[in-house]
Amino acid sequence: MPIFETMIFLTFFLGLIANFIGYIPPGNINLTLVRITINRGLKQALQFITAFSCIEFFFTFFIMHAAKWLSAQVKLDVIIDWVMTALFLVLGAVTWLHRKKPPNPHYAEHDSIRYGILLGFVNPMQIPFWIITGTYLITHEWILTGNFAFVIFSLGSAGGAFLCLLLYARFARYIQSKFALSTRMINTGIAILFFAFAGYHVVKRVYLAVAPKQKTAIALWYSVRKDLNDCRPLPI
User: Fold this and answer.
1) 3-state secondary structure labels for all residues of 168-187
2) Chain centre to alpha carbon of residue 1
3) What region does 204 belong to: left with phi over 0, alpha with psi -120 to 50, or beta?
4) Does residue 190 carry a pLDDT above 80?
5) How many CB atoms lie within 10 A of CB 222?
6) Could you give the 3-state DSSP secondary structure of residue 100?
7) Which runs of consecutive H residues, i.e. helices, occur in 98-182?
8) C-alpha of 108 from chain center
9) Which terminal residue of the chain has fewer beta carbons within 10 Å of its beta carbon, N or C?
């Protein structure tokens, strides 16, 4: 196989593997998918996954192009943390308020599609993920660069998201049927996870805001102590 075709395949494959792994840890997207699967059924879940994966293609393509500029933005991590806090709180509140409602498969036909498109755009955690992953892959020359190569990479990224989320949906159905868990119990658990993730981002921001001040105070204390020791009178 010629080198160019090999690199194109590798670019697609790495995009697929990277994003598949990226969506394995529980987060706003896969937990929302679990809730949709449990409450609305697998058909609505597939609509959500398909719509979200399509947006993921454009999202990845944009981030790969803008990675260098985004990595230079000093306050980007702060913005992402507070956006994620707000997003987790909203998702947690919605899930908590609807936790007692029984499953209803009769939703609007395109409701889950619109939901997938919305969360595809409001997905800030993917920004640092692709900045780090994309920069690493490009720096080590594991993928090609340029518009065509980024299109191939983004197709792999969309495929990886689709496969991982599809496994999440099927696993959610399996767990529900295997252990006969009630919809209320699952929704309550998901809501608690959403609130826990929101709390994590708040604690993270508070710690990062307080920690530098503590280090400065400790360094100042050691500096003063050293000066006092230097000023001690010499023994006669």
Assistant:
1) HHHHHHHHHHHHCCCHHHHH
2) 36
3) alpha
4) no
5) 10
6) coil
7) 111-121, 126-139, 147-179
8) 27
9) C
Residue 76: CB atoms within 10 A of its CB come to: 15
| Nearest CA-CA partner of 128 in 63, 84, 55 | 63
Arithmetic mean of pLDDT, 176-203: 78
Distance spanning both ends of the chain, measured CA to CA: 86
* Contact predicate 198/85, CB 8 Å: yes
In whole angstroms, how far apart are CA 133 and each of 59, 73, 139, 143, 153?
A: 14, 17, 10, 11, 12
pTM reported for the whole predicted model: 0.76
Closest C-alpha among 176, 197, 177 to residue 185: 176
In angstroms, how far is CA 162 from the centroid of its own chain? 15
Burial class of residue 97, CB neighbours in 10 A (0-12, 13-18, 19+): exposed
Residue with tokens 């992953």: 133
Structure tokens belonging to residue 8: 């194109």
Per-residue pLDDT tens over the stretch 31-59: 889 988 888 888 899 999 999 999 999 99
Sequence-separated (6 or more) residues with CB below 8 Å from residue 7: 143, 144
